[in-house]
Design goal:
Strand content: 5-15%
Radius of gyration: 23 Å
Distance between the termini: 64 Å
Number of strands: 8
Number of helices: 14
Oligomer: single chain
Strand order of the largest sheet: 3-2-1-4-5-6-7-8
């Protein structure tokens, strides 16, 4: 089938490549025309304005948005609404907050526009192995797009998880779990790195992939990272960003009185990674010195 695609970043471009490879016709638009021209060279239909993109599609039209969540996605939807008509569909494949989906769905429905939210996991490896797709929206809007979803996903890698917002909700929790898993691996490898043994962390990662109960794709990637950078990871800075889903997961846990200490602490550890020198740690050192005369280190 033919759909429009907006956003040709690392994820978006590879998603387009995978769809073209499976026989779909994909019209593409990107804010920077160089990426549009690049994808045109790989078989995509180029468009250099939103109007041109929509004009290449047959009614009812579907446009998939793959741009950063928040203001960028909101602006893109507003631009699209100037050109779409009742019966058309917008798919948001970014890491959108599910509350935004719940707001957008009725607003777009009032204009006769279908809205589908697609949580996408797979990163830069999705082109090769496929993307896990967690899709939310009304069944009537989702079903016609299943050929696209099944082309993007590996076998059994697509599921219509629920109504409007459910796709991004499940992806949010997925990413919260990812925070906790990554933190557990990070702590375990730090313990081994600090030990008196001269341990081959890459070799251990690869060993654990063979039948161990802690084997996972994240562990496989840890092994790749140690092979590429050495056990000391000396070329990397320990600054860890977050794109929002961990925060939203923690807030959702709070809103529903669900204890989620592992995910919460993994999020807070990311915050700590961004401090060159923790003010809170300075306060702790000062207090220990005041009540117990414990030694402190000065600048």
């Amino acid at each position: 089938m033919r759909i429009g695609f907006i956003g040709l970043g690392r994820m978006g471009a590879n998603m387009v490549r995978r769809l073209i490879r499976d026989g779909h016709e994909i019209a593409v638009y990107n804010r920077t025309p160089e990426k549009t021209r690049e994808m045109a060279g790989e078989g995509a239909i180029p468009a250099f304005t939103i109007a041109e993109l929509v004009g290449t599609l047959e009614k009812p039209r579907t446009v998939w948005i793959m741009v950063p969540a928040g203001d960028a996605t909101e602006a893109q939807i507003e631009d699209l609404l100037e050109h779409l008509e009742p019966g058309d569909t917008i798919v948001d494949g970014g890491n959108t907050n599910f509350h935004d989906d719940q707001r957008r769905h009725p607003a777009l429905a009032a204009k006769g526009i279908h809205y589908v939210d697609a949580g996408v996991s797979g990163g830069i490896w999705g082109l090769k192995i496929g993307y896990c797709l967690m899709v939310g929206g009304e069944r009537a809007a989702v079903e016609p797009l299943e050929p696209v979803f099944r082309s993007l996903a590996p076998e059994n890698g697509y599921l219509h998880v629920g109504g409007p917002g459910a796709g991004h909700y499940v992806k949010m929790v997925h990413n919260g779990i990812e925070y906790g898993l990554m933190q557990a691996y990070a702590e375990g490898f730090e313990i081994m790195h600090a030990s008196d043994y001269d341990l081959d962390l890459a070799g251990i990662s690869e060993l654990w992939m063979q039948g161990s109960v802690v084997r996972s794709w994240l562990l496989e990637l840890a092994g790749r990272a140690f092979r590429a950078n050495g056990s000391d990871l000396a070329s990397l800075k320990g600054y860890v960003a977050d794109s929002g889903e961990g925060r939203w997961t923690v807030q959702e846990a709070i809103d529903h009185d669900v204890p989620a200490p592992v995910i919460t602490l993994s999020l807070l550890t990311r915050f700590r990674s961004r401090q060159d020198d923790s003010y809170g740690a300075k306060v702790l050192a000062a207090l220990r010195n005041e009540f117990g005369g414990h030694a402190v280190k000065t600048e």
